[in-house]
């Protein structure tokens, strides 16, 4: 029938085209043109996916005009540029953001409507670009948005993985299963292949020293790096920056010799190994050692990407005809975690072996170009590469790393004569079988500045993992930039109604407050305005209904929307303590079961949402998912409690799912063991959307509380300085759980007794708590339960709760990623905004 596919109707299209004097003739023409030429399809024979593709290509045309003008103005003005090297860019969807930033949202809405489509349906056809694991990759995406919006000459460099983060499926028993994410299979309108921009990247072979620190590297395998460009439009500006992603290709297709000799397998193998480099994103989060990535392919990814990016950066620099010693005046490179640390020996190699500089000249350039951001103090996440592996894959780089280490340790020895232990701690090489290169140490000594991502985390970096380096180099090199989020995606796009209400209330153009987020402080004046509070609350309610609708259509489950929505969404990890949350849920369930029906009616109904992926090899994290799924199954089906407690695990967490969950939350949980979560960024997103925060005194939670006021957040748990002592007590003076925390003991024994099926399955998870309880669940459980009760109580006074919600949003100005990226530009890079002339 007419309501179904194909959506386009001849009459509708024709009349839209005839109406060229209507509002958006150019847009309609351009969409139709792309349908017919780019997609080679009949206008009247188009489904939503085709309409999405045509609209996207039409939007891309607009981006390209701005992109070209931006790049031209950079070339003409020749400013100092910044480059953000990140192995992960968790971009999510692009179309809606591009329309917003171009200021074309309304025109496109009208135009696609005239063609017989709904813009919501079209936007929903886009697949997430999920080239990242979690916070680190999403932060990179926010920084690109903010860099363009603040008109900074900032490019990103990354890899064009053929498969993004795996798709998560949940089996009937509640196990996580992983399926590949072939996100490019429907073609990607947002990328521009630059087949002419390519570099040859060498691996293996042999390296000879030539004296004076110089060397020569020959032989081995050469692979081609090909550029794909993704346009990054700024909000309310013409500036459109670039994200350049590299794809690996075999240098010359098949190896003809083997092919002619009839050895087809060997011929294809060489081509496979080149393609393999950018085939898949490693799904490990905080686990580079624990699960022994130690894999050659990951090392090859890192080198391939840093070498291609540096070659590209240097080629652009050299086009200006400046002498190489001026590189630090024109280039700043931010290393996102230690993943790109090979850029340091690679730049040394280029300067020594190709540019013929001496060691001092080369080292002085290197240490003025690079900046390093640390994102975690968890020891298992600090990257180390086995010396024999580096020697095999990158023989020349190993020589350079040894030379850097030699000069460095000589300097340390001069300052601390005879302090062998200090030398051993600071060395780039960790002794052992095999020896390993400590990438964080290399990143620190090769960089101009080192920063953490929230105040507490930066303090911990200075006083724990990098203390020796602070002593040696002075504290001023070690700094902080608290993370931020882009208010465009994380408020205006995901919560359009709230954004409109804010605009109306502040009586400001939305362009003004979305670019200077401190302006939302003006909302504070309206907390006492009952009509405003009513509107505020009605929007929260509609966002809850939108989420309930999502759950209904994807899982076929009915969520009560008159309950408090309690959300914890992030990667599954023991330190993030989703286990504490689900144990708290069970405690609530047991408590409810023990109440009379009349008493139950007085309780605060709650719906608890979980979402997040576990690293495929992270057994304990996967058991937590299984427990959540099975608790949900039992609790949601229990007639005694189902009106007061519901639990959902939403599979396949993504940026797009976060955009639905975050605006719907009343309370969100950020409950890491104190001192383990470097910053967190979803905490900022929830608070910006008027969701309150339940958390530990950790990461950016602390700074959020400083901004919004402690009375508007719910804190619990031990503080960072206590953690070490508590762990020591667990090891040397253990107290049986039953004595230490009877409430938690009762919960654990119920699981063990089979209340949630498969009793034996959970034993390894429960034993982590019964035994050394490294993440201190038993120390924090009672205060966690008390905090949950305070949340319930506060929610009963609905008016006061709404005031807290408004006050929270109003005081989140600091957490715009515009603020954060400008701190990097001003205090680290010395890079200034460049205005791109309006046509
Ligand atoms: C941290 O765990 C932080 C992001 C972005 C993560 C998280 O707290 O918000 O980085 N670290 O800075 C990480 O992924 C490998 O380390």
Automatic annotation (TrEMBL):
Subcellular location: Cytoplasm
Record keyword Chaperone present: no
Enzyme superclass (EC): transferase
Reactions catalysed according to its record: [(1->4)-alpha-D-glucosyl](n) + phosphate = [(1->4)-alpha-D-glucosyl](n-1) + alpha-D-glucose 1-phosphate
EC number: 2.4.1.1
GO MF terms held by the record: glycogen phosphorylase activity; pyridoxal phosphate binding
Cellular component annotations (GO), alphabetically ordered: cytoplasm
Role noted for this protein: Allosteric enzyme that catalyzes the rate-limiting step in glycogen catabolism, the phosphorolytic cleavage of glycogen to produce glucose-1-phosphate, and plays a central role in maintaining cellular and organismal glucose homeostasis.
Family: Belongs to the glycogen phosphorylase family.
Protein name, as recorded: Alpha-1,4 glucan phosphorylase
UniProt organism field: Coprinellus micaceus
Lineage: Eukaryota, Fungi, Dikarya, Basidiomycota, Agaricomycotina
